[in-house]
User: Fold this.
Amino acid sequence: MSVELDVFVGNTTIMDEEVYQLWLDGYTVNDAVKVRMEGGVMDECEASKDVLLSDTMDQYRTFQMCERLLHSPAKLANQLLFQIPPHRQIMLIERYYAFDDTFVREVLGKKLSKGTKKDLDDISAKTGVTLKSCRRQFDNFKRVFKVVEELKGPLVENIRQHFLLSDKLARDYAAIVFFANNRFETGKRKLQYLSFQDFAFCAGQLISNWTVGAVGEYNMVEDMDVDLDKEFLQELKELKILITDKDLLDQHKSLVCTALRGKTKVFPEMETSFKNLSRGLINIAAKLTNTKDVRDFFIDLVEKFIEPCRSDRWTAADMKLYLTHYTNSAHILDTFKHQVVWDRYMGVVKSCIFKMYHD
Amino acid sequence: MPGKLKAKIVAGRHLPVMDRASDLTDAFVEVKFGNTTFKTDVCPKSLNPQWNSEWFKFEVDDEDLQDEPLQITVLDHDTYSANDAIGKVYIDIDPLLYSEAASVISGWFPIYDTIHGIRGEINVIVKVELFNDLNRFRQSSCGVKFFCTTCIPQCYRATLVHGFVEELVVNEDPEYQWIDRIRTPRASNEARQRLISLMSGELQRKIGLKVLEMGGNAVVGYLQCFDLEGESGLVVRAIGTACTLDKLSSGSAPNTNTHMHPNTAPASNACNSPSKDGKEPVFVEDLPSSSGPPTPFRALPTSSSSPPPFSPSKPCSRQSSSSDTDLSLTPKTGKNTWPRPSFPFSSLPSPTLHIGEFPFFTLTSFPPGFLLHVGGVVSARSVKLLDRIHNPDEPETRDAWWEEIRQEIKSHARALGCHAVVGYSESTSICEEVCILSASGTAAILNPRYMREGCLDIGCTDHRLVSFFLLFSSKSKCQSSHVYDNAPFWFLLFSRFEDPSPPSCGFCHIPYDELNMPFPAQLTYCYHCRRQKVPDVLFTTIDLPSEAAVAGKGCLIQARLCRLKKKAQGETNATAISNLLPFMEYELHTQLMNKLKLRSMNALFGLHIQISVGENMLLGLASATGVYLTALPAPGGIQIAGKTPGDLSNEHISSIQKRINDTIAVNKELYQINPPELAEEGVGSPIPEPRHRSRLFRSHSESSDELSELDLSHGKKDAFVLEIDDTDAVEDIHSLLIDAPPPTGFYSCNTENMPGISNWTSGVQMFTSVRVLRLSNANLTNQGLNKIFTDLCENLLKSFYFKLRSMIPCCLCHLNFTVAVPEEELIQVTVTAVAMTYDKEQTQEKTAEKPVNKGSLEAEEQLQFPLELCADSSSSNIQTASKISGIFNSASVDYGSFADRCSTWLELLRLKAHTIRRGSVKTISSLERCSPLQEGRSRSLRSSRSFGGSSVTVVKMTPLSFLPGIRIIKYLGIINMFFIRETTSLREEGGVSGFLHSFIAEVFAMVRAHVAALGGNAVVSYSMKECVFMENPNKNQAQCLINVSGDAVICISETDQESSASTANTGQTGGGGTDGAT
Assistant:
């Protein structure tokens, strides 16, 4: 005697959020039943294991049928197959597109290609995220990437509208797309201490300040938020004067040192490493015209700036103080004419370093 | 040429990719009606094509309009090879054929393919221009309204109930035609779908013609079924109750107020201030003078607590003996001479032509006062051998079969001293060439006239006017015409039917003669009025009358039974089956009775017994809602007795006895059965009478007999004492105790109303569940099978409770179980039901409180019917009636607030009517309760959408005739859809469960889409009448046929009524916006 067929279909589609999460997390039906049993749901309604199994199967089937619609969330709102209340639709979409930070950290900046997809089992083993869930997350990244690639207009807004995601999630996806597009290196050992949220913040900064779209006059061009502003990158070369012109360099140093003196315990270290640090930052800027160097942007920041500071035991406040004065002092240099570019560059670098300066 | 059908193809969306190379589709559409086909242009390379076609016009007979569906085929254009079909949409034009219903069908329809399921959607607009044709000999019956609802639909008033209508049409099943061997499965499925659509159309038209002939304008309780007889053909049959319905107000608004009939005005005033106008009689003599009734009728007392102060007038004509062989069922005296009152309908054809050979009513609930007495369940079954239907145009055999069964039902009813059968239904079960035909109903005595009353005493001005006539045809036409002009006759009639019983218990009083009882029964005086006799147990197929006095809550009671039989062919098989049937019925009945006692209840409503035949077994499933009627005596306990003391140890017996007693006590608590006061007399178990089994054992011939209540009721006496004479009996008792009560917070019933719960909140979840069990063990015994079957049903219920736990407190209503034996070792159970939330707090208060709240609450629910009379005015030429009549069973009703509601209701109706006239109103129902956006009042769909571009109307579905907290303002027509789905890639679609799951979801989606396109937002009286599932896992194939039906309606949330203006506005803008997309 065996149950050959067992279905339950509601006019309003019944979905249990807990089961949905288990499904998203890639649990098999049997594992999901175990988790639910441990969660004590059986006591709620005098249910037995069979009841739980049947319910879980039903829900899994429902989710599988919904999955196709979730691939283009706009369809979910005007499809006719499932009657799902709007707030539930939002929940379904939001959770489907949610991802594990540990997982995304592994693929961030990698090409969203079949090659990467093949490595997913390794990533799964490393992160503890089930392979099924990894695949879903990876496919989500890829899908979003593909769709926005061809759209004009602001990246975050496009993602939000096209995938009906919350602002927070849309920004995260924008970061993922941005990283994937520019292939930023994030996997080096020295960068391991950075979380996805650190990178997402930096991406946000880069998107809103360094891309074509950031300038404003080029509204509604393709990839405006994905590609860095080439002109700007070119202009960054001009900043080299700050380190190549010895007078300027000295002047800059003395201005910064004057401002910092007495305000921090690590002042002597700041004073000695000023030239090195300044060279580091400005060399990064000058090299950004090379795609290869763009990719190394974050590793360079860490190697050329963050690590030296950390070995000198700067506090976050020291760092903030130093960078503020370092940026501002350049304005007072009368022979330095590239104030606009300088601000655009340092604004982003400053906030990125703030974000990245932790253990 | 009486009609012009116009169709416009607007756009498509979410089309499948048909061209792999470009990932796009070059779609175009064929629109076909009858033999005419139009085509749209090809919309190249788009998955969301915009055709925006011209109006395709079909000039057709209205007969065709009724029979044929509009057939829309979406295709992918292919330059080099044949065009590929994407899918089809069949649109039933019928709802456009009567003026009150939908005026346009417009919306997104799922494009359906029988192999691939839903493939995108198409936006279509359909209109019909109908030219009036008053040809008497026409073959069409446009304008006759159909309702699946088994009560008088909300927002209608029945002026006449004409009686039973039935029809069947037969055809060859395309699946079994020779051509099927050479055509594709798709072509075969489509041929079948189309044929059934045509046949249902034809059937409906023919029934409509009968109704017109009878002078009616509507069919209520329309029940259409398919018999897939395989080789021998395809039968589509339908039964229903012909009525003359009057639309209440909304259509005739907004002028309602100004054109108010002078007679209605005081009535509605009276609603507002009952005390002031209390004494003013509002009743106006509107009846034809020939049958002028005597004017002042004494009011029936309306308090449920106090019995009437006058003595019963002994009903006459009950003496008609049951031995009478005259099957006309119109007892000799008086009754068969009811004249047909001449009504101010000019178009009425002359009466008494074809009406009422069978005084059957498919209705299950009636306006108060309509149902006088209930005799009990009558049922008949017959086993037939199918043979090929030779001449589809003369379906005589099938007709004769049903005729036979109906006659039998009629004679049973008659034996119970009843002249009518209510809650009547018919069904079949087919296995190979054997077919069991079943019919069942409840024998009853009806009030031939909706009673009038002048409630002068209790301060309400309520005069219920004649709004309900019942016509039984008498076979002797001359006789009726003979008395037609006999004015005093009315007087007689009235005194005859002025029943003295209070409505809360009257229907329980026995209709048969006490001295000449058709079967042995334990009679006592009614525990309510103490005036008339009642039986100790009452079984019925109808819903619990709203005015009935009950104690505690009801509950679902099921009897389940399996019987193995040998595989056999033809005649032998049929005989074997018909020999088994009576035993099955007997056992089901005993089970029901015992389970009823175990729950300490004394009446069953909504009893439905299904016996399903398979190759090697018979399945019996009886479902009903048990309830404690305070009018009937309290059930005695169950006593266990060993046949001989030595057989089983006394300890064993006493332990069982104890378990039973405990269960009874627990159940009493659970269902809150605390009858008001238990009178001493009559309590305790009466002495069981000797068994009368002999009557059960009489031989059954090929046409197996009934086992009506009347025969089975001897079993009833056994229920008190259960003899344990063998191990089987022990098993039986154990199985009795297996039924687990629903978990806390859940109640369940299979009727329209849950006895004891009326304060529903807005949460509604309709669902369908199918489970198929494969019996792998070949050596099963009856006992083992029973256990398996019982567990299957119990586990299903457990699953429902678990799945719906978020709705607690909640009640599963209208639990409709269908069993089938699709293959030798398979058992299939299909369940459709609705879960509804209710307010627990209020229930508890209510039981304690005075009936102030209860009265208004119940009245609202029970009888939308009289309530809406208040808003009616246009048709007041016949009569007026005050809404308060609906609540006449509770004296202390808060009339003020009630009336307020009515007037806002009127207001709203007017507004609604206004918007409706502009066309394309999409009334928006509140979304499910849980939505955070929906706190409080419901909003328009648009505003509640969080993302743009959506135009999907939320469509609620329920198997009940009402939605809680929501008022139906318009019936848009019947939904009757038949789908076939087939797959040759079963595994890829997720196995049988995945396949069926998506198919059922698709069926729901298509129903919702059709309702939304009609401008509706809900389906009431929804049912899945057929779910035939066949699989062949080895070939990776499966096929499923589903037939669903229901009434499409527009309804509005009751909270909206108060803010009527704003709702109407948002509704309109919402609708406009939606239509803007078209």
